[in-house]
Amino acid sequence: MTSLPAPTVHIVDDDALLVRALVRLLREEGLDARGFDSAEAFLAAHDPAAPGCLVLDVQLPGLDGLALQRRLGAQGTALPIVFLTGQGDIPMTVTALKAGAVDFLTKPVEAARLVAAVGAAIERDRDTREAAGRGAELRRRLASLTPRERDVLAGLTAGKLNKQIAADLGIVEQTVKFHRARIMERMQARTLAELMHQTASLAGPVPATPVAAQGRQAAQD
Q1: Residue 211, pLDDT score
Q2: What angle do CA 210, 213, 217 make, to 5 degrees?
Q3: In angstroms, rounded to a whole number, what is the distance separating the alpha carbons of residues 115 and 167?
Q4: In this predicted model, what pLDDT tens digit does every residue of 83-95 receive, in sequence order?
Q5: Do residues 25 and 115 lie in contact, with contact meaning Cβ atoms separated by under 8 Å?
Q6: 104 φ, ψ to 5°?
């Protein structure tokens, strides 16, 4: 799997002096940081494919911080958010955290606490992107299976024995064993347990091909 590019911390706040101070602080910590004075300016420049996190004020001109969080969520952008505001309250904090914010900090904030929150947000983003990359790779491997191999895999994920899969598909058990070995090779799974973990991570059992499903239905009829 290719390594991810360096993350960027996006700071969105209409206090220009604060933005400059935070950009300087984070750059001193070895992080790439960019400042924006509005949610709209951030959205115009944001690349969802780029890793990083967002340090976001709640009270902003135009689109406010919570509205920006909702918009990013609706767009499927999982950019972790650290809220930093001088006008927060408990309901606002609960709303932000329930929607997935990493932290909700109040101004003025200690530098160490902000850096720690940004670090946690970057780590969450990295974990999310690495998990997505692993999922994409597993889907690529799954797509490389032949229709018959998918039928055998569907039987395996359903917990069936080789002889049961053979009976379902109208083939001999030795052929099932051959396909099973090929599946393990193509999916790069060392054990059956690892193969089951891979398919489970792809959200559910592998569906059999229409031909195999029709064959089982005909056998039942």
Answers
A1: 46
A2: 135
A3: 60
A4: 999 877 788 888 8
A5: yes
A6: -135, 105
Tokens 């891979």 — which residue? 198
Question: Among the residues of 49-172, which ranges form H helices?
Answer: 65-74, 90-98, 111-143, 147-157, 162-169
Dig out the tokens for 145 from the structure.
């299976």
DSSP classification of residue 197: H
In a 3-state reduction of DSSP, which class is residue 10?
strand
Structural contact between residues 95 and 67, judged by C-beta atoms closer than 8 angstroms: no
Query: Looking at residues 130-159, what average pLDDT do you find?
Result: 90
pLDDT of 144 higher than 50 = yes
* Cα separation, 97 vs 103, whole angstroms: 7
How many distinct helices (H) and strands (E) make up the chain?
10, 5
Task: Give yes or no for a contact between 11 and 33, defined as CB atoms under 8 angstroms apart.
Answer: yes
**Model confidence pLDDT, tens digit, residues 3-38:** 667 899 999 999 999 999 999 999 999 999 999 999
In which residue are the tokens 């229409």 written? 210
β-bridge partners, 171: none
CA distance 25 to 31: 9
